[in-house]
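Sat 14:20. Reprocessing the chain from the morning session after the first attempt stalled halfway. Input below, unchanged.
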Amino acid sequence: MKRFLLAALLFLALTLPGVALDLGDKALPLSVDKWVTGEPVDPTVVDGESFYLVEVWSVTCPPCVKSIPIMNDIQKRYADQGFKIVSFTTDSEEEVRPFLEQHPMEYSSFLDKEGESVINYMALDNRTTVPHAFLFDKSGILVWEGNPLDNLEKRVQQVLSGELSGEIAVKVKEARDQLQEAFNAQNISGMLSALETLEGLEPANSQYFQIHYRLLTELGMGDPFEVEELLDRWYTGSQTDTESLIVLSMVSLDQGQPTIRNPELALRAAKKAYSIDSDLKAQAGLNLAETYKGIGRIDLALKTLDELPSLTTDPEDAEMIAAVRTYYGKLEKLGENPDAVTVE
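Finished this time. Tokens:
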């Protein structure tokens, strides 16, 4: 049972890298059939001045269309600081040419020769969707990967400031390897040590804190003081990460762990998440309402829910907000007059 829980924790909370291109690695060669936009770019060339974003896209991908003007703008504004984008697709030239007429790319893009670049860059089980981007610093080391719609400009700025660097990426890779080795050996103390290192290197990555929290609580490896200290560090490192703050607020009100619940921290994290202007604003609002409900303030939960319809154009989000609003309204009425409920 203990081994099963450990496996579930790692599988659900952290995808450990295992093959191909990994954080801390050098850029891999590109296999070019034909350049369709811009000048030829080679991210494997390290000159100490240039840093690169390699992006995989497709003509049939709506998020790729959405990302093009964003990357056009970022390429233009950071070009004089050495930033270069190179993108590629496995689609045919017959498909790509008319697509580019409607959605012009102001950066370099090529047709992948026999899919070799896709194999080099996407050969991980969890890399299954496009667009997918790989950001290399000026030393030529992979420092970030993900969806270019996920705060790409912030990542570029972090490379320029040194917050994202090859040196840090290599240390993260080493610590992840240590975490994997400790897990394979069922070495709990080794896992906790590796997680503490990772939390220090990537304080905004909530995955490490989630695993750490579950190890301390569900396996009984920590006392309430240790849990409180972990949650405080999690909050400190998540000041600009809406998703991480949402998860933290939920964990802090964990109904399964009454002795270590921290409603004050839960509310602080939920309020902070809702204050951030992001694509998750509506979800952060729902979480804040849920947190208010969890501390017994249905009135504030309803007030928050009333603000949310104007924050989203997604029909599913709107439907969810309306359903939660109706449910909380019933709770409010029940709280005002619990004797109104009869038993038949």
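Residues 168 and 201 are 7 Å apart (CA to CA).
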